[in-house]
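Methods, example record. To illustrate the input and output format used throughout this study, we show the complete record for AraC family transcriptional regulator. The sequence lines were provided to the predictor; the line carrying structure tokens was produced by it.
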Amino acid sequence: MDALDKLIQLANLSGALDLRCLLSGPLELDHAPAPAGEAVYHVVLDGACTVMRHGHAPLELNAGDIFFLPRGDAHVLSIGPREANEETAAVQSHHNGAVTVQSNCGGKKPGVDLLCGRFLYAPRALLIDVLPDVVHVAFTRASAPYLAPLVQTMRREAEEAQLGAPSIITALSTALFTMVLRAWLAEQPSLAGVLGLLANRRLGASIIAMLERPAEPWTLEMLAKEAAMSRATFMRAFSAHSASSPLALLSHVRMQLASTMLTQTKKSIADVAADVGYQSEAAFSKRFKELYGVAPGRFRQTNGLV
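The corresponding predicted structure is encoded as:
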């Protein structure tokens, strides 16, 4: 397991395809901010639309584009008229057995054909925290040949609504997150923060060590050894990629692991604290509350699965 895969598992990622939209304009679809723990995505199968976010330049989306808002920010999808002087019909919705379909085309070719869905993730997921506000890739690019077959399968399942389609679509939506992230990472000329650390083979080894052995009494010297560097070289290399210190990142990793244990196991808070390197339950609870805003016990009551 690589560090990115571990972070995806820690984020407890799952996907959901909510809508197939076959729409013509002029039309503006206002999307309010998503609830905490939800990211939003739009896949443009055909046609075009414009994404507008407050304080940002409009972004044109065309067939093949995938637009992903990791923190589910408010936005507006603007769809232009397919023909001059075209009037907008009322949007009709129906569930076809696989997804909800929204359309105002009356059998005509839509101005845009969209798949719209969500990615759900654990509170304060480290991976989501380090992503930019917008992730934008295209499944038509030669650099991401694996995306087009996935999207086309999602489209077919959403369209044909055969037996088991909802389960297949959910699984494909979950896979879409990782594939979109992989495609986006491959296009970045340089990366900063945790993503930059993961992209560096030697520094990434220290992150993997934190993730796999959080109970270790890690020191800078020990982390530098995992990266096969001296302490001074490790600190210089780490600082070149991240504004956060190694021990601050370690603390965040430990809290992310702890939040997963609190929601998915019946371990006592003291045992969870020990498993992530805290001998003092009080010290663990204080740090947890600093990051999540609530004590571990209350967090478990609110988010726990057990």
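Annotations derived from this record:
The first helix runs from residue 3 to 10.
The chain has two domains: 13-187, 194-303.
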